[in-house]
Design a protein that fits this description.
The chain is built from four helices and twelve strands. By secondary structure, it is an alpha+beta fold. It has a single domain (27-169), classed as Oxidoreductase, molybdopterin-binding domain (Sulfite Oxidase, Chain A, domain 2, Alpha-Beta Complex), CATH 3.90.420.
């Protein structure tokens, strides 16, 4: 009788573990290839990459030249603690940095056009789930600066809307 109770308890624990693992949302994994012709959705925007050697602009026209568009899911938590998952389409931040000639850095400061900023360490900046997005849930982002930094494995305050500048810290 004792042996069957242990087996039953083990099965219940395994069922709980598998249930929790199945309900835990995966973030940052590409969910589908993005369309390669995004001329309708990509909009017109520019982001300035600031290095110790000067500034370089990365524009929507530059993004169209890259062959690395990606759509990924990211989950954020609002102030009330509610989770929200969205699909974002954009380009990898690592590709933006390469395009601007950035080869080495210690961290980045991501600035929004309204003055908000967030720090990214090198690991977060180079992760394959950190993108510069122009589309959310299949719709173009809106506003004067319709671009958003999306670090799917980052924290909510690292999602920088209206991204205007990427400051490279040596």
């Amino acid at each position: 009788m004792k042996k069957s109770a242990i087996i039953l308890l083990s099965l219940v624990l395994l069922a709980i573990i598998f249930s929790v693992a199945a309900c835990n949302p995966k973030t940052g994994e590409p969910v589908e290839p993005a369309e390669r012709d995004l001329s309708v959705n990509i909009g017109e925007w520019k982001v300035t990459v600031v290095t110790s050697g000067g500034e370089k602009e990365f524009t929507s026209a530059d993004a169209k030249k890259l062959d690395s568009y990606v759509t990924l899911e990211a989950t954020t938590k609002n102030k009330a603690g509610e989770l929200s998952t969205s699909k974002y389409t954009g380009v990898y931040l690592s590709d933006v940095l390469s395009y601007a000639g950035v080869t080495d850095f210690s961290s980045l400061t991501i600035e929004a056009s309204d003055g908000f900023s967030a720090e990214y360490d090198k690991d977060l900046a180079l992760k394959p789930d950190t993108i510069l997005a122009w589309e959310k849930d299949g719709k173009p982002l809106e506003g004067d600066q319709p671009i958003q930094m999306v670090p799917a494995s980052g924290t909510g305050n690292q999602f920088v809307k209206m991204t205007a500048r990427i400051i490279v810290n040596d």
